[in-house]
Amino acid sequence: MSDVTTTDLYEVTMALSYLHEDMSGSATFSLFVRDLPAERGFLVSAGTEPALEYLSAFRITSADVGDFASALHRPYADVAGLCGITFTGEVRAVPEGRVMFAGEPLLEVTAPLAQAQLVETFLLNQVSHQTAVASKAVRSVLAASGRPVVDFSLRRTHGTSAGMQAARTTALTGFAGTSNVAAAVRWGLPASGTMAHSYVEAFPDEEAAFRAFARAHPGPVTFLVDTYDAVRGVRTAARVLRDLRRGPGCAVRLDSGDLGALARRARAELDSAGLPEVRVVASGGLDEYGVDSLVRSGAPIDVYAVGTRVGTSADAPYLDSAYKLVEYDGRPVMKLSSAKVTSPGRKQVFRRPDGDDVIALSDEPGPAGAEPLLRTVMSDGRRLFPPDTLPEGQARLTADLEDLPADTLLIRDPRPGRAVFSERLSELTSDLSRHLRSD
C-alpha cells in the first residue's frame, strides 16, 4: 500500500471526473488554518518538508490503480486513466519554523486540476498535524525559560508515525532531545532516557536497582527516585552517586506528586550530600501549563520531560485547516458557505516590521519594507532547493519569536497575532462574492 492511496476516496472520484470532462487546466489550492485554537497566540509552520518529499515521489502505479478500482468496486479499466500520473506542478510554501497566524497560506499548490486534487489529503494530514504539535511544543520551550525540554511522547502518540512526527517537530521548536530512538538516529537528535518504575521494582530495593543501573552504564546516569517514596529515593540516589563518585552529569527524576515541593526537597538533599552538580529532572503529565507554573513558583528543576499532552497537542489536538481551490484556469474562485467563506486568487503573505501581516494577491508588490513569506520551492514537480534542516528551521523560529509582542507569547490568555487583507484582495473578494451571489 503506497502513500498515493493514503487519501480520501472523494479525491479519486473527483479526479476521475476531471479527466472524463477533460478539465486539465491549471488549478491553485491554498492550505491555511481558519482560526487559531484557544490559548494560542500564533502557529509554527511545520510539515512542509515531509509534504515536499511526498510530492517529489508522487506517481500513480498500476498497483495503486488496482487499489482505487477495488475501493470503488469498479473494473480496472474504468480508472486506468489515473495510471502514470505524477506531480508536475509548482509549490509555494512558508519554510518550516516560521511563525504564522490564522488565514495565512502555509503553502499553495498550482498544478493540473486532477493532480492538485489528488494530493490534498496527504498534504493536509502532514502540515496540519505537525503544525499543531509544533505550535504546542514551542510553548513548553517558552515556559521553561531556557531550561532544557525533552520529548517523552512516543508511547502515547496516536500511532508510531505520529510519534516520529512529534519528535521531529519538537526538535524544530528547540527541544533538547527525545526518547524516540528511531527519531534520534534519523534526524541526529540527542537520545534521552532513564529507567521505568518496573526496573526499580524488579530489584529487592532501590539501592540495589540504582547500583545495578550504574554498573551497566559507566557514564552519567539518571535515577528515577519516586517508585516508593521520593525523598527517601533521593537520599538513596545521593548515597549511591557519592559512593561511586558519579555526580557530574547525573540526575534524579521526579515523575509524580507535587513536583514543585518534591524538587525543593530533592535539591536540598542533593546539596547537603555534597552533590550540587546533580540535576533534578521533572516529568509526569507536564505540558506548557505545568512547566509555566513550576518555573513561576521557583521550583529548582533543571530539565523538563514532557510527553503525552505535548505529543498529542492534548488541549488543541487538531487545527481547523483547509485546502481550498482559489483559482482555476486563470479564473479566481471562492467558497461562500456560511462560516467557511474563502478568498480568491493566488496569495502572498507579507510580514511588516511593525504592524499586522498582510495577505495579498501573489502579483502585488507588498508594503514597503515587508518580507514575503511564501517562496517557490517546487517547479515542474521538482524541488528547487536542498531539503531544509532542523537547525535552519530552529533559527527561523528563534528570530520570529524575538519579533513577537510579549502578550502574543503568553502561555495563558495570549493576544493572538493577526493578518489583514490587502486592498486589492479585499476588492477582489468583495466583487467576486457579489457576482456569485447574483447568479
TrEMBL record:
TM helices/strands, residue ranges: none
A GO term, aspect molecular function: nicotinate phosphoribosyltransferase activity
Pfam (any one): NAPRTase
Gene3D superfamilies xref list: Aldolase class I, nicotinate phosphoribosyltransferase
Enzyme superclass (EC): ligase
Claim: Transmembrane helix is one of the keywords in the record: no
The protein's Enzyme Commission number: 6.3.4.21
Annotated keywords: Glycosyltransferase, Ligase, Phosphoprotein, Pyridine nucleotide biosynthesis, Transferase
Reactions mediated catalytically: 5-phospho-alpha-D-ribose 1-diphosphate + nicotinate + ATP + H2O = nicotinate beta-D-ribonucleotide + ADP + phosphate + diphosphate
Post-translational modifications reported in the UniProt record: Transiently phosphorylated on a His residue during the reaction cycle. Phosphorylation strongly increases the affinity for substrates and increases the rate of nicotinate D-ribonucleotide production. Dephosphorylation regenerates the low-affinity form of the enzyme, leading to product release.
Protein function: Catalyzes the first step in the biosynthesis of NAD from nicotinic acid, the ATP-dependent synthesis of beta-nicotinate D-ribonucleotide from nicotinate and 5-phospho-D-ribose 1-phosphate.
Name this protein carries in UniProt: Nicotinate phosphoribosyltransferase
Record organism: Streptomyces parvulus
